[in-house]
Amino acid sequence: MSRAVADHPGGADAVTDQPQTPPPAPAEQSAPASRSIEPPGTDWQRVSPKYIAVDIAGYAVFGTIMTVAGFIPFWVSGWAPSALLGIALGVLFLVVIALTPRRVRAIGYALREDDLLFRRGILFQRIVAVPYGRMQLVDITRGPIARAVGLAELKFVTAAASTGVLIPGLPLADAERLRDHLVAVAETRRAGL
Amino acid sequence: MTDFADGEWHRLHRATPLFRGGLAVLILAGLVLGSFRDRVIDLFFGDRGFGDPDGDFGGDPLDFILRENLVLAAFGVALLVLLLAVGGFYLSWRLHTFRITDEVVEVRSGILFRTNRKGRLDRIQGINIARPFIPRLFGAAKLEISVAGNDANVQLSYLRSADADALRREILLLASGARRSAIAGDAEQWTEHPGPGVGALLEDRAREFLAPELDPSLAPPESVLRMNPGRLIGSTILTDAMIFLVIAGIGLTVAVVVTGDILLLIGFLPALLGVGGFLVSRIARSLRYSIASTPDGVRVGFGLLSTSNETLPPGRIHSVRVSQPLLWRPFGWWQIAVNRASRSSQQGAAGQQQTTILPVGNLDDVRTVLRLLLPDVATDDALPLLERGMLSPGGEDGFINSPRRARALRWFSQPRNGFALTDAGILLRTGAIWRALTIVPFPRMQSVSVRQGPVLRPMRLAAVHVHTVSGPITPALGALDRDAALALFAEVAEASIRTATADTTHRWRASAAGSRA
């Protein structure tokens, strides 16, 4: 069991820690389609391109703070090699930010007959299928940056914490429409816990 | 039959405050007695009177009171405190009421801060009856109704012991979707209490106390599984943690021999006592363990002095894991744990979480328990497959296993690491050294995901995770062939939809009652 987890540093809560590792791009690009887990012929709905800016802004703020904090040992001690920490952090966040457009384009969802399909990740790919009847609640949240560009985040909650379906970057009207649709279809397919 | 389930408000056992504060009262009494001990001994054997102001008992408050002639005031204060406490306890008992209707169980409690808790009957995940030692002496029991969620349990503590059993039966009947008329018919087995009188009362207590943990009329004997004490003791000793203990013991012996310093041993005495106490308490808690099938679900009971038993209605088991610690392998012992949607505040057998349904058992026991827990999955046809899931070293045995190229990721378990699907559930087989079989019934799974990271992708492998309510089990299988993983993902997604519509376990007797009516 522990080994299975080791294979996937993304782990059960990949939703939150997805961009932690800077991906070595070449391996990903050269991978033939048949190796990946992309199911063929799925009509993915993509999230708004505006979300790229939102995501970058978020990482820029967070990355700046972390990078500045990473330089503190250097400023305090004046020992040159200790600046490496700050430099490493800065590079890491730059890579994460540079890959944001691709990462955002990789997010997708598809409304199938009886279940919701959700995918995300480029290096650590993850595809989830959730039957509508399993819905416990749908959450719409909006951060300050997302609200400025009129985007919202939709969370589909089941009884399992590890389901982790969190669709970011939806225009508010779309998010509300999707929420109402999900609630309606869940009602007709209601099942026990 | 009790009249508790008639939809009106009822109160708990009159002695409830005593049981709840029982331990505190005992400790307090002990402290008071301890401080009076010298005084009492002196009263009987000494030459001074009880109230001799010249007596010196280390300047405790009593001396002060005697010296300053405050005896009356002290009595007044003590009386006031006592009255307040008794009044408070009485009021809290009086305001603690519950009712059980056709739809919900509801509890109101609190004097200043009122709480009102409602649990829906069709969401009941299990009903636990616990009898801690002291309340058990007085014939009282605690009923805990687990509803899905963390800390979402409705507690009725305490009730009369016999009432608790009857009430549980009635709640489960109401929850099962059967009609009220069915309850009246079912309640004939209800036994009358003997009439008043101290002798009869004592006899009643003694009978209750000495009664077998599992009422023989409750379940057909062939469906009952009991724990073999020898196996219980053996399995408790042969845990992986024990290996470290033995190594530590050897190290200690060597150290003593080398240094010749016997005093070294004394330093480890507390640790030794601690481990010994832990083992004894674990074994004592699991004694009289039984698991049985009753009409309203699986009943798991255990305990020698403090007893506890829980009834899990059908369809409340979200995932089952049969596993074998390394040291148990020569003996063929297995352990069964489950994921459930509720958390009981009571500890389970062997001091483990109540998610451990079978602390230890052989292959036959595992078969019996699996039949009880997952009757749809562990059918006669599927049992050989389940056994291969536990025992088989791998190969062409009905499971689809990891390909050879996964050897780098699954050094020993690659031939065995695989899955199989039945009509009712998914079986995940893992581990060659620590062997385990995880079973998820389709109607209970919440979602399924397929994953692939940078290690798996170049090897054309993928991992599949099945999501259930959280618990000790995380059903997942890594290092599968990419095509097999995708096929599994598609099939599981489809099957979870198909079976969800057919599943009626949340009202498990509704269909039967409907056809009877």
UniProtKB/TrEMBL annotation, chain A:
<dbReference type="InterPro" id="IPR005182">
    <property type="entry name" value="YdbS-like_PH"/>
</dbReference>
<keyword id="KW-0812">Transmembrane</keyword>
<dbReference type="Pfam" id="PF03703">
    <property type="entry name" value="bPH_2"/>
</dbReference>
<keyword id="KW-0472">Membrane</keyword>
<feature type="region of interest" description="Disordered">
    <location>
        <begin position="1"/>
        <end position="42"/>
    </location>
</feature>
<keyword id="KW-1133">Transmembrane helix</keyword>
<feature type="compositionally biased region" description="Low complexity">
    <location>
        <begin position="27"/>
        <end position="36"/>
    </location>
</feature>
<feature type="domain" description="YdbS-like PH">
    <location>
        <begin position="105"/>
        <end position="182"/>
    </location>
</feature>
<feature type="transmembrane region" description="Helical">
    <location>
        <begin position="56"/>
        <end position="76"/>
    </location>
</feature>
<feature type="transmembrane region" description="Helical">
    <location>
        <begin position="82"/>
        <end position="100"/>
    </location>
</feature>
<protein>
    <recommendedName>
        <fullName>YdbS-like PH domain-containing protein</fullName>
    </recommendedName>
</protein>
Automatic annotation (TrEMBL), chain B:
<dbReference type="InterPro" id="IPR014529">
    <property type="entry name" value="UCP026631"/>
</dbReference>
<protein>
    <submittedName>
        <fullName>Putative membrane protein</fullName>
    </submittedName>
</protein>
<feature type="transmembrane region" description="Helical">
    <location>
        <begin position="70"/>
        <end position="91"/>
    </location>
</feature>
<keyword id="KW-0812">Transmembrane</keyword>
<feature type="domain" description="YdbS-like PH">
    <location>
        <begin position="93"/>
        <end position="171"/>
    </location>
</feature>
<feature type="transmembrane region" description="Helical">
    <location>
        <begin position="262"/>
        <end position="280"/>
    </location>
</feature>
<dbReference type="Pfam" id="PF03703">
    <property type="entry name" value="bPH_2"/>
</dbReference>
<feature type="transmembrane region" description="Helical">
    <location>
        <begin position="18"/>
        <end position="36"/>
    </location>
</feature>
<keyword id="KW-1133">Transmembrane helix</keyword>
<feature type="transmembrane region" description="Helical">
    <location>
        <begin position="232"/>
        <end position="256"/>
    </location>
</feature>
<dbReference type="InterPro" id="IPR005182">
    <property type="entry name" value="YdbS-like_PH"/>
</dbReference>
<keyword id="KW-0472">Membrane</keyword>
<feature type="domain" description="YdbS-like PH">
    <location>
        <begin position="418"/>
        <end position="481"/>
    </location>
</feature>
